[in-house]
Amino acid sequence: xxxxxxxxxxxxxxxxxxxxxxxxxxxxxxxxxxxxxxxxxxxxxxxxxxxxxxxxxxxxxxxxxxxxxxxxxxxxxxxxxxxxxxxxxxxxxxxxxxxxxxxxxxxxxxxxxxxxxxxxxxxxxxxxxxxxxxxxxxxxxxxxxxxxxxxxxxxxxxxxxxxxxxxxxxxxxxxxxxxxxxxxxxxxxxxxxxxxxxxxxxxxxxxxxx
Length: 210
Ligand SMILES: C[S@@+](CC[C@H](N)C(=O)[O-])C[C@H]1O[C@@H](n2cnc3c(N)ncnc32)[C@H](O)[C@@H]1O
What we know:
- This protein has 210 residues and is of the alpha/beta class.
- Helices cover 29% and strands 29% of the residues.
- The model has no long low-confidence stretch (mean pLDDT 97).
- S-adenosylmethionine binds next to α2 and β5.
């Protein structure tokens, strides 16, 4: 079961009853996507072609926010998600995101292509599907439920698997600044720095593969 929720920037999100957690911070779902994931990535790396791994695709806000933030850039996104039902549920959402209609179209065959972007969803447990990827990614939007609700996705092993498939100077962004998560990131090989503070005192986290 997933209930519709409004967040403080007026953008909608969902509340997942099984995990007892919302898909976004109450500060603002779109604000979170733009400020914690998209801007820190684009501030550190701009390329004519970007390969993006959306790790825990959910409602697809991080991908949609990226699409409207670039110009003259070809974007290829792979989204990892284990809940096929979410692609039904997002049909009721109308966030103010320019290309969201294409995110909704993913429900048909988990693939959409437009002139400057392509998105493919791989359904399954991200801990397994991440091991099957052959591409090299420039950006990783790392966005599981919290460390309390989903500890299995914040491990050193997962970060090692992600590190392997990232290109040189690539960027991973995530919302938490948890000490044990940062420790796992460093052990996996990342250079870890503070991301922006958005709607709270603590920063998000940016990982750079140097
Ligand atoms: C915080 S939400 C993601 C929000 C999303 N990035 C967005 O912008 O809307 C976490 C997502 O992780 C998914 N998830 C939970 N466990 C997973 C797993 N083991 N493998 C893949 N996806 C998982 C959930 O179904 C949920 O959609």
